[in-house]
Amino acid sequence: MGSADTRWLASMHTWPAWGRWLTMVVTCALLVGGFWLITLGGAGRLLGLALLAAGIPLSIHAGRAVRRERSRKVEHRYARQFMPAMLIYMVAMLYVWPLQKTMEPGLLKVAVALLPVWPIAWLIVASIRYVLGHDELERRQHLEALAIGVAIVSVVSMVLGFLAAAKLIVVDASLALLLVYPALSITYGMTHCVLVWRSRAE
């Protein structure tokens, strides 16, 4: 990201309210549109990836701008690390991981099956560095949000597990395991937004 882009993003918190909220709306449209195009398949997947490439880093800065907070070095670093890792993960899941379905058991199949794990591990490391780059109050908010998110996902998992064990519902075990990390990320993100809002309201 060039210095001109950095200056533009760093000044977003000084924009009028309508400009900051319009940027947030555009960001959400890029993300939703990108995921929608990816689900459609075909050539639209590449356009969807391009929209996500623009929307992911913008979302990090737009969120702070809406709260009239300047994007700091830690946000710029996180955006630079998060975007390529997420794009590599999606490319791996869309174009490489499906190949394992027709492969014979062996080391190559294991490597292809586990390929998406590497960018996710990259994302987790980037997230840890992002949290540690904040001050004490912000780190506490992140850790509290993570704890609440883990508790919510754990309770929901146990409820589904008991219902499945009682033969009341059918749960795909592989799908359930794959959804743990996204579920944690969503509950953590939503809880963190609530904690930040409550802190600012006090």
Commentary on this structure:
This protein has 202 residues and is an all-alpha fold. The protein has helices spanning 3-10, 17-40, 44-66, 73-96, 107-114, 117-132, 136-165, 173-178, 180-201. The longest helix has 30 residues, at 136-165. The chain is globular and about 55 Å long.
The major sheet is characterized as: none
**Helix/strand class:** mainly alpha
The Cα radius of gyration reads 19 Å
| String of helices and strands | HHHHHHHHH
Low-confidence stretches: none
Tally the beta strands: 0
Average pLDDT, rounded to a whole number, is 83
Distance between the amino and carboxyl termini: 36 Å
Share of helix, binned:
over 70%
| Shape estimate | globular
Relative strand content: under 5%
SS element count, helices: 9
Provide the fold topology:
Elements: H1 3-10, H2 17-40, H3 44-66, H4 73-96, H5 107-114, H6 117-132, H7 136-165, H8 173-178, H9 180-201
Helix pairs in contact: 2-3, 3-4, 4-6, 7-9
Keywords:
202 residues; globular; single chain; mainly alpha
Short description, anyone?
The chain has helices spanning 3-10, 17-40, 44-66, 73-96, 107-114, 117-132, 136-165, 173-178, 180-201.
